[in-house]
Amino acid sequence: MNKNLEKLVEDGIIPQRFPASFDTIQEMISKDLDWWKTIGTDSETPAKRESHFKAFIDRILKTTGVNIVNEFDKSEKKIAEIAGGPFGGILETSFKNCNNLTQIDLLADKFEDLNWTKTKMNWLTSPAEHILAEDDKFDFLIGFNSIDHGWDIEASISECIRVSKSGALSFDTNRYKNPGYPDRSHYQIVDYDKVCKYISSISCIKNSWSWIHGISNGHVNVLEFYWNK
Q1: CB-CB contact of 186 with 151 (8 Å)
Q2: Phi-psi region for residue 13, left (φ > 0), alpha (ψ -120 to 50) or beta?
Q3: CA–CA separation, 197 and 193 (whole Å)
Q4: What digits encode the pLDDT tens for the residues 5-21?
Q5: Cβ proximity of 168 and 214 under 8 Å
Q6: Is the Cβ–Cβ distance between 120 and 97 less than 8 Å?
Q7: Which domains does the chain show, CATH number per domain?
């Protein structure tokens, strides 16, 4: 296991075992890496995900009036993505002019070794719940369908905001209300009403919105929001 992650486990920042599944951190990493090398190599390619990423970017523009690509896709900006995956996520598909792109992920060192991105990436091995970066390091941070895969949604939100000057997140809520929970990597209960109450107290969050997304065993409330300090 990555030395930084080992230290976080030793310090009690990463739990010894995760809620619902009771997987250890190493088991979680191994399962996720295996999934990426089998199912994810087909379902999560940039070509198949780009329309979802564009739709998210369009919703940000429609709701906030901010065109994040025009605003932040510049050579001098520092942009991060939380758990964008080994193909480089939104940074790979949508940010072509920025020279400082960082992927933050529990499996970042594993993904770097896979070398599946065409764009030059910095890889930061770190959980969303405790990002190993200083305050306001990034000009912009984005996350799509990612932080609900961890174990502490409120800590993840807080950390994403802490390390960035501006950003936007999108993630599923109320998945636990559908049959089949917990599934492969949804280890925590992310309750829509509880999360909305939490973000309502964060002053730098300028806009939030939601929509209903159908999944194979029901539906989820997708919560999205934008912040700017």
Answers
A1: no
A2: alpha
A3: 6
A4: 999 999 999 998 887 77
A5: no
A6: no
A7: 3-228 (3.40.50.150)
Give the CA count within 13 Å in the CB-facing half-sphere of 96: 3
Span 192-213, average pLDDT: 97
Cis peptide bond prior to 127, omega within 30° of 0: no
Question: pLDDT of 29-76, one tens digit each?
Answer: 999 999 999 999 999 999 899 999 999 999 999 999 999 999 999 999
Half-sphere exposure of 127 (CA within 13 A, CB side): 25
Helical packing angle, 153-162 and 192-199, nearest 10°: 30
Rounded to whole angstroms, how far apart are CA atoms 225 and 168?
A: 6
Give the alpha-carbon dihedral of 34, 23, 17, 105, to 10 degrees.
Answer: 20
Token code pair at residue 213: 């997304």
DSSP annotation of 138: B
Q: Using CA atoms, how far apart are residues 164 and 136, in angstroms rounded to an integer?
A: 4
Query: What are the structure tokens assigned to 82, written together?
Result: 């939380």
163 burial type by CB count under 10 A (0-12 exposed, 13-18 middle, 19+ buried): buried
Please give the model's pTM, rounded to 2 decimal places: 0.96
Residue 4 CA to residue 217 CA, distance in Å, equals: 37
3-state SS class at 61 = helix
